[in-house]
Design goal:
With 169 residues, the protein is mostly beta strands. It has a single domain, classed as Sandwich (Immunoglobulin-like). The protein is built from one helix and eleven strands; from the N terminus they run αβββββββββββ. The strands form two sheets. Strands 1-11-10-4-8-7 form a six-stranded mixed sheet, with no helix packed on it. Strands 2-3-9-5-6 form a five-stranded antiparallel sheet, with no helix packed on it. The protein is globular and about 55 Å long.
Length: 169
């Protein structure tokens, strides 16, 4: 019995001493001031979330926000965000399945990404935009990335969907 008890105590010391590995930026967190209006904040996940590092952003839009089909997705970011994107490594996923993309335009002067899927994305789908090969800004901060869509056959006006409130350490 003493042997069993000492073995349990020693093994518990090893388990407590090991660090717990967690993913960076698991959820957007809690915003007190300066965030988007209630109901407009969208979920995201960053692989690193560290300033000056290479990263992958997973920006999610829930199905309830997409009550219209999507012919174009535009992501606007603030002018003080000094990171960089690789338009060749942009992906749209619907329920984990990749959607073919016709064109991605990164307008650095006007601070937005435009993503054009080959076929319009049907309404009512959960959507995830994956931005790989992102170089985070040298200095951390909080950045509002706004999601806008244009529907097929519609007036060429963008409709606001929501905001990702990215925090980079």
């Amino acid at each position: 019995m003493k042997r069993l008890l000492s073995a349990v105590m020693v093994s518990s010391c090893f388990l407590i001493g090991l660090p717990i590995v967690s993913q960076a930026q698991g959820m957007p967190g809690f915003t007190l001031f300066g965030g988007p209006e209630r109901g407009n904040q969208l979920n995201y996940r960053l692989d690193s979330g560290k300033s000056g590092m290479w990263d992958r952003y997973r920006l999610r839009i829930p199905a309830k926000k997409l009550n219209l089909a999507v012919a174009q997705l535009s992501i606007a970011y603030p002018d003080y965000y000094k990171g960089s994107f690789d338009p060749e490594q942009v992906e749209i996923r619907i329920d984990g399945e990749s959607v073919s993309i016709d064109e991605v335009i990164w307008d650095q002067e006007n601070n937005f990404l435009e993503i054009y899927p080959t076929e319009p994305i049907p309404a009512g789908n959960k959507l995830e935009v994956v931005l790989s090969g992102v170089q985070n800004p040298r200095f951390g901060g909080m950045y509002q990335f706004n999601a806008n869509i244009r529907t097929p056959g519609d007036l060429p006006l963008l409709r606001y969907v929501g905001t990702w409130l990215l925090t980079i350490d």
